[in-house]
Amino acid sequence: MRSVNVPLGNRSYNILIDRNLLKSLGSECSKLGLGQRCAIISDSNVAPKFAKTALASLKKAGFDPVLITFPAGESSKSLKSVQSCYDQLAKHRLERKSFIVALGGGVVGDLAGFVAATYLRGIAFVQVPTTLLSQVDSSVGGKVGVNLKAGKNLVGAFYQPRLVLCDLDTLNTLPLREYRSGLAEVIKYGIIYDAPMFADLERNMPKLLKRDINALASVIARSCEIKADVVGQDETESGLRAILNFGHTIGHGLEAISGYGKYLHGEAISIGQVAAAELSAQVLGLPREDVDRIRKLFKRSGLPIKVKLNAGQMKRLFAAMMLDKKVSSGEIKFVLAEKIGRVAFGQKVSMDLIPPVLKTLS
Ligand SMILES: NC(=O)c1ccc[n+]([C@@H]2O[C@H](COP(=O)([O-])OP(=O)(O)OC[C@H]3O[C@@H](n4cnc5c(N)ncnc54)[C@H](O)[C@@H]3O)[C@@H](O)[C@H]2O)c1
Ligand SMILES: O=C(O)C(=O)C[C@@H](O)[C@H](O)[C@H](O)COP(=O)(O)O
Ligand SMILES: [Zn+2]
Fold it and tell me: What number is the ipTM of this complex?
């Protein structure tokens, strides 16, 4: 078993990474000093696959779990779903010492985490991520929340889980498109923090695409180490944490203007990161060779790197980008790369540069 600690003083927690871990959910939760009553929050794809094992494990360890599900998909990451979860938690009489288990991908984790952060003014929660994206990124670091029509993640909180349990075996049933989506966040870590990791990904992409278990375990652990290191230094994004947002200003904008239906998160930020790389070349002199390596790695992962927007869509994209949380005094602050492995945050960029940059992706 691999274990990564997220260092946040008395709110520190571990990320456990191994095969066949779901069976240990109950025994791991027993170590946390939580109440007996708990709710698994999951979605309509994940619950039929994994809820039975999770419920049995919790019961065996003496917990009293109930299961709450909602329809799978990004459109469920909404205030409407939050309300429905609150109603069901009240119906099942969860108490202050009760806890929530988020069983699923990033949509489940972000939504269930927000519900945990706010129900009874906050009850404990445990993340059990079942997608690659959620194992390498969304289950770690405590950003929880939901979307508004106007923009991604506009309502939320910073609220840390008590434990993250990544069962590698759950990834076996993940559809290929979803798996690739997770690779976009993995590649991000190489670009923002770890040039040798980026080079390893270039070498090992064929193995990763075959879901080779050793390659996967290493990549998940390294991604979690990087995220834990960044979050440990800047939990609430007063500065450094913004680097985790590389490629997200344009990526989130694309998700919002397409009504959260066209692109998966990883697909949108694949395009966003290629655009950010092109922008970095112009603003920070990111070497052309690095831009090309970035483009090529996303492409080899099977992720989209092209986008074509008409004038109306470009206008809507700009409006969505202005709702980015990195906007300050009406100006978007970008995360840009100086070279692979090193980025700078808080970069002012003239909006005039965006349409020509997106043109290079058409
Ligand atoms: N909080 C954060 O720090 C953070 C970081 C990155 C992304 N996010 C958010 O995460 C969300 C994307 O997460 P995601 O990519 O996990 O999407 P998701 O939760 O929608 O899961 C993807 C799809 O796979 C299904 N699924 C999940 N696990 C499965 C499994 N093991 N087998 C078969 N099917 C399975 C789901 O039902 C869903 O249909 C976005 O909303 C994004 O904004 C949050
Ligand atoms: O954890 C972070 O910080 C991130 O930015 C991780 C991102 O991959 C993730 O998509 C996050 O949800 C974006 O947050 P937001 O603050 O830009 O909404
Ligand atoms: Zn992301």
Answer: 0.99
